[in-house]
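1st attempt posting a full record on here, be nice pls
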Amino acid sequence: MTSHHDSKALLEARLALLGARLAGIDGALKTHNDADWEELAVKREDDEVLEGMGLSGQQEIRMIEAALQRLQEGSYGACIKCGEPISAERLALLPATPFCRNCAEG
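the predicted structure (as tokens):
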């Protein structure tokens, strides 16, 4: 069973990892020194993939920050929709989830 302290540590570690990853993506998106049109076209395709990864990472960061806020407020582990406890198994797999299984499926 994962304690709230363990969940906080996991969330903070994931937040740090995502921050570093997004910084790397941002750096990669800013480097376009190739004058060759074919290479620029390939880089543009790569940029689209990187931008998608960046958006996904930003969304996950928002979820983690919200979970950390719930931890601070003392409401972590309770579904934000129905108020019922989120199972320990679900929180172990998805520590940032704001929903119990029933509300997530519905």
